[in-house]
Each structure stands twice: as C-alpha cells, then as structure tokens.
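Recall that a protein's primary structure is simply its ordered list of amino acids. Everything else, from secondary elements to tertiary packing, is in principle encoded there. The following example makes that idea concrete.
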Amino acid sequence: MSAFLGPIHFWLYKKIQFQEALIDELVAYARVHNWSAEDLADKYCTKDRRELEEVIDEANIHGWLQSRIHDAEGRYAAFVNAMVEGHAERLEELKQAAYDFGKNQGVSGETAPAVYHQLDDLLLDGMPCDMVNQVVDSTDERFVWQQAMDIHSSFWGDNGAYYYALRQAMIKGLLAGTDFAFTQEADGAFVISRKAA
C-alpha cells in the first residue's frame, strides 16, 4: 500500500460512510419506535464524520481503513442482532427502513453495468484487494455477479442471513427510481436486469 492518499482510499472511505449513514438511519428508526431504553446512537453510531485526510493514519493507510471497515461491520451486526433478538418481527421493519433509506439515496443509469458501478461505489464489500465481487455476465440489459467469498456473515454470528436480507432490501430501494430490478438467483448470483416494459 502506498504511503499517500489516492483516489481508491477516498472511494473506500465513501463506502464506509455510506454504511455509517445506513446504521444511523436504522438506529433512528429503532429510537423512534422505542425498541430500547439505552442510548442506541451512543452505542452503535460513530460520531467521527470528518474528512478522510483529517482522520486517517497516513503511516498505516491500509490498516486504518481495514479497522474502520471492521468497526462499521461490527457495530451494524451488533445493533441488528440486539434489536431482533427476541423480536423476530423487527427484521421486517428494519428491511422496510433499509429499503426507504436506499430509495432516498437512489442511483441512476441507462445500462445495467452503469447501475452496478453506482452500487459498487456505495456498498461496502471489504478492501479492494479482497476482490469479493466477480463479474459473471455483463450486457446493457443484464449484469450478473457472484461473491467470491462471504466477508460479512462472520460479524453476525448465526445471523448472517439478516445482513443479506437488509442489503437486498436496501439495493431494491436504491434501484426503485430506475428501469432496473435486483434479484438473487438460486445459484447465489446477484442480478441487475432491466424491468419488463
């Protein structure tokens, strides 16, 4: 890793910040609905939203970014697991809140690859060197990818499915204003395809 900040570091930090915004939104939803007596924001939300160049350890850029990813993933999982434990019905509410968050953010694009690249600019899938997403097929009408590894479920204990349910809901929200839909196929492939006219 280079010893100076480059575009890839800002790109990754933007993805971390997007996940932080999702956590904020879900925590706000839980607070409004009185799901906990404790201060959820203090426990699960980060207060440090400074620009990357103000906060990063330039002597350890890769390690610092990795630690921020792990921190965001861990708090997200801990929050959802705590809120859903003993209240399975809350997962559906959180999925709706994640969908609404995505819809409010929105993406655009004239082709399936353009839409995917906007998603890839937002969704946190580890470090770029992890190469998590592998493209399977790409046309203007349809973009298909698979995950080479599951880097998320380890944060969720036995509840890795929660992560993917919330992610799918958020992606559907992100695509709500586009001509494209998001699905997951039986073989685990993720698909962005043009909606039928």
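The beta strands are 133-138, 142-147, 180-184, 190-194. The CA atoms of residues 15 and 123 lie 6 Å apart.
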